[in-house]
Amino acid sequence: MKALILAGGENKRLPVTKGFLELKGRKIIESIIGLLKGIFGSVIISTNSPESYFYLGVPMVGDVMNYRGPMTGIFSALATLEETEIFVTACDMPFIRPDLIRYIVGRWANTWEAVIPIFNGKPQPLLGVYSKKLMPKMEESIRKRIRGLREFLNTREVHYIEEDGVRLIDQEGRSFVNINTIQDYEKERSAVGG
Fold first, then answer.
1. What's the CATH code of the domain at 88?
2. CA–CA separation, 137 vs 15, rounded Å?
3. Residue 190's pLDDT is what?
4. Which residues contact 157 (CB under 8 A, 6 or more apart)?
C-alpha cells in the first residue's frame, strides 16, 4: 500500500500554502512525509502545483478531472496508481500518530471499499484507506458536483473504526487536527512551543 498526501486545497483562508506552515522549525508537509515514509514503501503528493513540491523528491499526481477537492485528489491517485488501495491523509495535519495509521491500515480487508476512523462521533475521511472499488461511484459523484467525502462514504461499503478503539491510541484526537486558518496555526504553534 502507498500513502497519498492531499495537497491540492484552494487555501482560501490562509496567506500561505498550508503544508508549508512551520511547527518547531519544520514544514508540516515535510514532517508528514517523514512519518509516512517510516510506515509505507512509497509516499505520493496529490497536487496541481508540482513546482511547489518538487524539492521534496517524492512522486506527485495531478487531478485527472477538472473539479477541485479531496475526492478528486483521491480519485486521481486511484486512477493513476497500480495499487488497489491507498492510505490517504492531508498536508495540514501535523500531529498524526504513527500507531493510529498502523491501526487503520491493520483494519483493512478487501471486502471493504474504505476504512475510516470515527472521532467525536463523526467519520474522519482524511485519515483512511480507499480502494479502487470506489472509482466508478466516485467519478459519478464528482461529475454531479457532490464532492463531500462523508456524504459520499455514507453510500459505500465502509468499515468505520469505532471511536473507542481510536481513543485508545489517540485519546484527544490530535491526529485529526488540521490547520485551516491563521488562528488554527497560531493556537497549535503556541501549544507545541513554536
1. 3.90.550.10
2. 35
3. 80
4. 111, 112, 113, 114, 133
Q: How far is CA 186 from CA 10, 93, 179, 182, in A?
A: 20, 14, 9, 6
Retrieve residue 114's grid coordinates. Answer: 474504505
What mean pLDDT, rounded, does the chain reach? 90
Question: What is the residue type of 117?
Answer: P
The tally of domains found in the chain comes to 1
Instruction: List pLDDT tens digits, range 173-185.
Output: 999 998 888 888 8
The domain in which residue 43 lies consists of 2-192
Q: Is 0.85 topped by the overall pTM?
A: yes
Helix, strand, coil in percent for the chain, rounding step 5? 40, 20, 40
